[in-house]
From TrEMBL:
Family: Belongs to the HAD-like hydrolase superfamily. CbbY/CbbZ/Gph/YieH family.
EC number(s) on file: 3.1.3.18
Organism of provenance: Azospira restricta
Keyword Magnesium appears in the UniProt entry: yes
Reaction(s) this enzyme catalyzes, per UniProt: 2-phosphoglycolate + H2O = glycolate + phosphate
Name listed for the protein in its UniProt record: Phosphoglycolate phosphatase
GO biological process: carbohydrate metabolic process; DNA repair; glycolate biosynthetic process
Length: 229
């Protein structure tokens, strides 16, 4: 039985790349570098804010930034992203209907994102998704981020489910590896941000076209595992 579902945010529920790229580009310009643009920034998203900013600087300078420059750039990024966060963000097709279908199945829902908490809450509020979730675990809620299992395990504990009874749905290998390491089931969506290449479907139980299909599959799995007596 699947008794709870956790969702990734960027690239799974919301297409946030325009806002992320706008903040990255404003950061680069403020630091005297050329902006990278959306298509390049898309490949940098997935391992949280610090890695995103570090990848922008490394791509601009041809070498990794030192700690002082990185800290300064992160502070600049935070300021810019706080302004644009949610401005152009859009739900992917099937997201709201899918979340409603999961809710109709009676399953508690959680969010597990590598985005820092300062941005997760406002984004969920601005896009009207906050009420779907019992818990939101952000990139700085636990000591480790996805692909480490800790944030998903933290969500499972708050949702009151054993990891084996939780399904995690995400767009990148970070989600699938975290889910596997946590002992959860994992579904992948094909439309988000995957860093260098497509997700390795060997790491997931199903590749689903959208959340509505995911909810249908969960309903089917739970029908098949209902006690027969
Ligand atoms: O912040 C990121 O790098 C990606 O966020 P996500 O975990 O919601 O996809
Ligand atoms: Mg994602």
């Amino acid at each position: 039985m699947i008794r709870a579902v956790t969702f990734d945010l960027d690239g799974t529920l919301l297409d946030t790349i325009a806002d992320l790229a706008a903040a990255c580009d404003a950061t680069m310009v403020e630091l005297g570098r050329a902006p990278h643009g959306v298509d390049k920034v898309r490949r940098f998203v997935g391992k949280g804010m610090a890695v995103l900013v570090e990848r922008c600087l490394t791509a601009a300078d041809g070498r990794a930034p030192d700690a002082e420059l990185l800290a300064r750039a992160i502070a600049v990024f935070r300021r810019h992203y706080a302004v644009v966060n949610g401005r152009a963000a859009r739900e992917y097709p099937g997201v709201r209907a899918g979340l409603e279908a999961f809710r109709a199945l009676g399953l508690p829902l959680g969010l597990v994102t590598n985005k820092p908490a300062a941005f997760t809450g406002p984004l969920l509020e601005r896009t009207g998704l906050a009420d779907f979730f019992v818990v939101a675990v952000s990139g700085d809620t636990t000591a480790n981020r996805k692909p480490h299992p800790e944030p998903i395990l933290h969500a499972c504990a708050i949702l009151g489910v054993r990891p084996e009874a939780n399904l995690h749905i995400g767009d990148s290998d970070n989600d699938l590896l975290a889910a596997r390491a946590a002992g959860c089931r994992a579904f992948a969506v094909p439309y988000g941000y995957t860093e260098e290449g497509p997700v390795d479907t060997a790491n997931c139980d199903a590749l689903v076209s959208d959340l509505l299909e995911a909810a249908r599959r969960v309903a089917e799995i739970n029908r098949q595992t209902l006690p027969t007596s």
